[in-house]
Amino acid sequence: MSLKLDYVLRETAGNFRRNVTLTLATVITVTISLTLLGAALLFGDAVDNATVRWKDGVEFIVFVDHDISPELEADIRRQLEESPEVRGFIYVDKDEAYAEFQDIFRDSPEFVDVITPERLPASFRVKPTDTLPERVDELAAAFRTQPGVANVVTASKTIRQIEDLSSGLRQRVIIIAIILLVAASGLILNTIRMALFSRRRDIEVMKLVGATNWFIRVPFMFEGLIQGLIGGVIAIPLIWLTNDYFSVINDDSLSLLRDFTVDSSRVWALGFQMMGLGAIVGTVGSGIAVSRFLDT
Amino acid sequence: MIRLENVTKVYKGEVLALQNASCEVQRGEFVFLVGPSGSGKSTFMRLLNKEEKPDRGRVFVAGRDIGDLSSWKVPFLRRNIGCVFQDFKLLPNKTVVQNVAFALEVIGRPRSVIKTKVPAILELVGLSKKVHNYPDELSGGEQQRVSIARAFVNRPLILLADEPTGNLDPNTSLGIMTLLDRINRTGTTVVMATHDRSIVDKMRRRVVELDRGQIVRDQSRGVYE
User: Is the domain of A199 the same as that of A253?
Assistant: First the structure.
């Protein structure tokens, strides 16, 4: 079967002209759902970045002096191991700290450039048995006065709230986005069905003279592909906009949400993923719509 | 060319459209299907290009049992069967030449073939002067000629005509019959369902009469009744 490009383009252009409003509605729905889904995923990333140090029950971090002697460090370690109030801890050396720092600030190379692994302190990330804030503060204070300890940082209330909130919030936004995406495929399905209905004579004749189902189907699938793609392309700048909004939060409360940022390459990747998803939803939706119509 | 073997077709479990019908049509024959409305003429034709499937019995086209035909092969069966209808089924937003070209385009014929075949067939049906007109600018007879051109442009083995003169006056009908006769003389098998007594009587071709889904008469060089 030879499908000619000019034939497909001509048919698709004709369908677009005939169904301007429906096409518009479809594109807008695709755009909104993809933007929401993208923003939800982006938000998740930002939360991950902000709370990466506070995973798995880590409640406070003991930063040691960056020129600490091995003996003093071993002392602190022993104390953590022997304390009944400590469930466990993770040791993060200078290089690991630097790698994490680089990862979070991928987007700001000028920031990364001025920092070297030597300038970053090693740390113990401590998981206490009792996570009641008052008990954690007491325990943290005990380590603050230890020789060789530069600083002790407890997970701020805000970080805890973000963690609690984010998982629920992210899930909800993703669910809404998926529902919208389903609605968008439904709309694409409907658009195509309308297009098919207005062209049922053409299709009748095509079937009559022996056009294959794929020959009939492809222009419509192409139409869905383009609708999905356009929706996806418009979603990319909108996803960028949400990322800018995150940056604003960042500036407002720098001290609390220092790491609440997402790398720009990640935003691009997400944008293109959303565009691809739009294209798939559009093509598959149309394919289903036409198949129902052909039913041979 | 065409063979029905004990074919029964029931619509929605109760309407008996064909009942144990058997019939054979040789290559190059011209056959009239006659009978009152609802006697099964259209079903007879729809079985041939697999728009319908028989409930019992077998249908052969060009020596092939089309009951075995997988659905993706049906379009290729239909490329060998031209169809003409009472209501023409032309596309109103396409000109005469576009309507005919469309039939070749959608089965993937190269443009060079379309360019030579379409004017030739329009010449044959006597419409070379109206190629750029739209269907609603043509008379009924002219529209039927376009539809015959579209059905025949791909040189099918079989031409099915379902009451092609049903909407036309007697004189115009005669013109259409002359055209179908010419097509038949090129070796194409023609099956035509009709109510038109005068045409059947004048042409004196094979007549198959259907009544309530049964073949009640099969007569070579027959008349309407």
Answer: yes
Q: CA of B74: which chain A residue's CA is closest?
A: A210
Tell me which of B107, B113, B146, B162 to substitute to probe the interface with A (most A C-beta atoms closer than 10 Å): B107
Contact state of A205 with B102 under an 8 Å Cβ cutoff: yes
Question: Cα–Cα distance between A32 and B195 in angstroms, integer?
Answer: 59
Exposed, middle or buried, A101 (CB in 10 Å: 0-12/13-18/19+)?
A: middle
Chain B residue with the nearest C-alpha to that of A3: B108
Where residue A98 sits, what CATH number does that domain have? 3.30.70.3040
Residues of B in contact with A212 (CB under 8 A): 72, 75, 107
Inspect the interface and report whether the beta carbons of A205 and B89 lie closer than 8 Å. yes
Encode chain B (225 residues) as per-residue pLDDT tens digits.
999 999 999 998 788 899 999 999 999 999 999 999 889 999 999 999 898 999 999 999 998 899 888 888 899 999 999 999 999 999 998 999 999 999 998 888 888 999 999 999 999 999 999 999 999 999 999 999 999 999 999 999 999 999 999 989 999 999 999 999 999 999 999 999 999 999 999 999 999 999 999 999 999 988 887
Q: Which residues of A touch B74 (CB under 8 A)?
A: 296
Closest chain B residue to A295 measured between Cα atoms?
B71
At residue A28, the 3 state secondary structure works out as helix
The one-character DSSP state at A68 is -
Domain that holds residue A238: 5-52+160-294
**Last residue of a domain, which of A124, A154, A184?**
A154
* Three-class secondary structure of residue B33 per DSSP: strand
Q: Do B108 and A215 touch (CB under 8 A)?
A: yes
Same domain for A290 and A201, yes or no, is: yes
Give the nearest chain A residue to B105 (CA atoms). Answer: A7
Per CB distance under 8 Å, which residues of B are interface residues toward A? 49, 71-72, 74-80, 83, 89, 91-92, 102-103, 105-108, 110, 150-151, 154
DSSP state of B130: G
Total structural domains in chain A?
2
Flag if A211 and B106 touch (Cβ within 8 Å).
yes
What is the ipTM score, two decimals?
0.86
3-state helix, strand, coil in chain A (%, to 5): 75, 10, 20
Check: CB of residue A32 under 8 Å from CB of residue A88. no
Instruction: Report the residue from A201, A205, A212 with minimal CB separation from B75.
Output: A212
CB contacts, 8 Å: A291 with chain B: none
d(CA B86, CA A256): 79
Residue A198 to residue B136: CA distance in whole angstroms? 18
Is A287 in contact with A280 (CB distance < 8 Å)?
no
Model pTM score: 0.69
